[in-house]
Amino acid sequence: MRSVTFHNLTPVHPVGARPGRGSHRSTGREWRVLAWLCRHPRFLLVPATIVTGLVLLGPIVTGSIVGGLVLAVVSWRRGHPPSFDRFLAPRLRSTRRRWTAYAGGRWAGVLAECDLVRENRRTGQVTVPRVLRVRSSTPSIDTVYVRMARGQDLRTWTERAEALADALLAHRVAITRIRPAVLAVVVERVMPFDRVIPAPEIPAETADVDLDALDVGENEYGDPFTIRLPGKHFLTAGASGSGKGSLIWSPLCALGPAIRDGLVRVHMIDLKGGVETRRGARLFHRYATTAREAIDLLTDARDEMKARQAAMDGDRALTVSQETPLNVIMIDEMAMLTAHGERGDVREALRLLAEILTQARATLTTVMGYVQEPTKDVVDVRELFTTRICLGVTSAAHVDMVLGDGARERGALADQIPGDPAHAGIGFVIDTGSRLPVRFRAAYVDDHEIDELVERCAIHPPVRALPENGAA
């Protein structure tokens, strides 16, 4: 019977066997176990620590320490889920999945079924690509770093990606080459969002609006997906139909009373002629639908920023009030302003945006840009946005452009999000604490809910229609 070698990527000839003549005997199990332990010395750390504790401290003290650690972990998980999910849960999850899903006979069997093992024709030994590390950044995505068998390449694996996904019972698998002979196999185990997230409730009073944690959707842990406006600038990238509108209207719903009471002023630039935002025009302090109007708006915003800087008199930051409201500049279809417009308009817009993005943090000015193609040619000021969000995009390269190098390797498969309405609003953002990608779904705000928002929080009166005969 042929045996499987897990510890090596090159066939190992039994002691005494001549390489030129095949042997049906494999390396002894005890030697394979010893070699495995030499490669994974930390596997012995826990039992060695327990044995040492039993010898030096006795069973009662050792049991009390172990029980206390278990109780502390359980208490942390139950008492403060956000910090537990950010810091400890990924490590525990990675360890568990490393030894239950991607090790031993299970892993070897999966690769054998997908024709991803190599057999030595002379010795009959089978070489299985070795798992180097597993990272489970989120409950639904694993990144498995694999050293390929000699003779394999990236194409060998990408051609078998669908078969590998089915063998692992995964939603999909994406494969990227990290360095020579090493791949990152991103396993999306499930799609966590099987329903549309309802629009956030419009707060009753301004006191209920939290500018540091606006509820705009739900993350894959089932917790609210929140954003902080003061001191931040947001770039949202997504293909047509990916749900960028959800990240326009959800923040506006969460801000409603603050807009009405003058604590937040929304400056809207909609370069699709107002198609996306005209329904909420009465909410906006300034409204621009052409490049020329947009440049005038940005110029005024820059001048107000400069005036606030001059009036700060040594203060490091302003406080949101009716005298110094938070200015939110929303730019839909930003590429028409930064790349595809008249050359003179593009240069002026880029100059104004660069000035605002680099200096406006302390003056209560936030820019929120929305774009389909996030390349440098289209968004030259991309790196100046402090928070970047990636919805469904059309290219794998766009993911790292938006979220940073290695984001897709760590599980941000934004290019794999289907472009149909059932998946609109799903995207990824980098967690500021762990630097890991977190998947979310933005809330969907329909026309009736936009009308309700305008009715309750508009700052401009409705436009009165003229009589049919045109008389004033």
TrEMBL record:
ATP binds at G238, A239, S240, G241, S242, G243, K244, G245. Residues 222-400 form the FtsK domain. The chain crosses the membrane at residues 43-76. The keyword Transmembrane helix applies. SUPFAM superfamilies: P-loop containing nucleoside triphosphate hydrolases (SSF52540). Pfam families: FtsK_SpoIIIE. The keyword Transmembrane applies. Keywords: ATP-binding, Membrane, Nucleotide-binding, Transmembrane, Transmembrane helix. It comes from the Bacteria. PANTHER family: DNA TRANSLOCASE FTSK, SPORULATION PROTEIN RELATED. This is FtsK/SpoIIIE domain-containing protein.
